[in-house]
Amino acid sequence: MRIWIALTTLTVALCIALVVSVLLPPKTLSLAAGARGGAYALMAERYRDILARDDIDVQILYTNGSVDNAELLTLGAVDAAFLQAGITVPPGKAEAIGGLFYEPMLFLVRSDHELPSNPALWRDLQISRGALGSGTAAAFADFREAVGLPEADNKELELGAAQSIFALQAGGLDMAFLVSSIEAPYLSQAFNSDEITLLPLSYTQAIARHMEYADIVDIPVGAIALDPVQPTETQHVLALKAQMAIDPKLHPALVNRLTMAAKELHAGRDILSERGAFPVAEGIGMPENNVARQLIETGPSTWHNLLPYWMAAQVNRLFLLILPILFLLLPLLRIAPMIYSYFRGWQVWKHYSHIREIEAKVSDSSSAKDLKRLAKALDSVDYKISQLRLPPAYRQTAYHARMHIDLVRKRIGQLRVDAK
To answer: Which of 195, 293, 353, 358 has its CA 20 to 30 A from that of 369?
Structure first.
């Protein structure tokens, strides 16, 4: 019984150790953001603060933008990254947590320049299209193709957002193309400048049909500023969904924390979307992570406030790990006593072959010498059985065996007396 208890305890301990080792997540997470001071970088800092509540250290990598982030995900160099809609990652290299917020496509121009609202008519302009490696540059290339604007018709400069605003104010640009959160700091600088205004774009519906990942959103009058009023009339602008992409191998508990942070940060109302519009699992252009989808659609489990986050995040996974173990242990718990009982009985039963062999050799024709030898062999078997340390519940088998030995011993004794 002691052996059985020890084996059971060891098995349970090993199972617990296995479950804990699988469920416990890493304590660090690398997140590719964007340029320092940009919308993605500021958002990454908010995620870092939220995940720090669970002692998860978010290490922010500052990049030129979504194209660089996609490359880092492809190489497996980061755990998660912000990506602009339309930026692709090779199959199997990333999954999406969901769309987080809208990034409008903004065309900023100098207030004293009158430019066509039809983008197909732009000619001989100096246009900042975004820094190399940014999602802005990739979006402008797709936009130019969608409207049928030849690249050679204008001079395109690869400037970051802050540089574009500065160059536009200084008169070194005719237009700055930006794809960014409406709350980005550099946009406040642009909208507060008398030299810069937002160019209304014509035919946004038609353009959106040619850019399958683009939506159309409204910027209400005065939504950006009321003194002076910006914009002065409702603007229908193209917008892209910013999304969070992750390494498919990212630990489910970390996926849970990122998704819960996304719900906390992006579920509210803003200038471009209503309350509860984000995060969203649909329309993000890559496979969705199942853990994130369930959290977005149904919310956290009932265990969320009762268990440690790393366990609550994986209750279903925990059951999937434990159930096979239980299916193995329960039959073992039923048959283990039978195996133990058989083992204890076998310790006695294995001597019965010797007893029967001795009994078979005892006969009326046996010589005194043979009877003496058989008696010694029988005593040897009796001694071995007497030395067995059997629990009280299993001693009856030994008693029966020794009773059988006594019967054979009496038979031998009687024959020895008769032989004299």
So the answer is: 353
Q: Find which of 59-73, 229-243, 317-331, 346-360 is predicted with most confidence, using mean pLDDT.
A: 59-73
Pairwise CA distance, residues 215 & 209, whole Å: 9
* 236 close to 204: Cβ distance less than 8 angstroms: yes
Residue 96 has pLDDT above 90, yes or no: yes
Beta-carbon contacts of 268 under 8 Å, excluding residues fewer than 6 positions away, are: 275
* Whole-number Å distance between alpha carbons of 122 and 410: 122
Give strand pairing partners of 365. none
User: What is the pLDDT at residue 74?
Assistant: 95
DSSP letters along 68-133, please? HHHHHHHHT--SEEEEETT----TTS-EEEEEEEEEEEEEEEETT----SSGGG--S-EEE---TT
User: Closest Cα to residue 260, out of 316, 307, 306, 312?
Assistant: 312
101 alpha carbon, distance to own chain's centre: 22
Query: Does the pLDDT of residue 6 top 80, yes or no?
Result: no
Report pLDDT digits (tens) over 177-223. Answer: 999 888 777 887 788 888 888 899 999 999 999 998 999 999 888 88
- Which residue bears the tokens 């204008």? 154
Give the chain's mean pLDDT.
85
Q: Are strands 95-110 and 235-246 parallel, antiparallel or unpaired?
A: antiparallel
250 residue type, one letter = L
Bridge partners (DSSP) of residue 82 are 244
Beta bridge partners of residue 242, listed in sequence order: 84, 101
Choose among 51, 136, 123, 46: nearest CA to 87.
Answer: 136
Backbone angles phi, psi at 112, to 5 degrees: -90, 5
CA–CA gap between residue 385 and residue 379 (Å, rounded)? 10
pLDDT category at 420 given cuts 50, 70, 90 is: low
Q: Give the pLDDT score at 147.
A: 95
Contact 13, 329 (CB under 8 A): no
By the 8 A CB rule, do 104 and 239 touch? Answer: yes
Give SS3 for 212. Answer: coil
Q: What is the pLDDT of residue 9?
A: 61
DSSP code for 291: H
Residue 388 phi, psi dihedral angles, 5° rounding: -70, 130
**Token code pair at residue 28:** 């660090």
- What local confidence, expressed as pLDDT, does residue 242 receive? 93
Consecutive H or E run containing 148: none
Count CA atoms closer than 13 A to 99's CA, side-chain side.
Answer: 22
Taking the alpha carbons at both ends of the chain, their separation in whole angstroms is 50
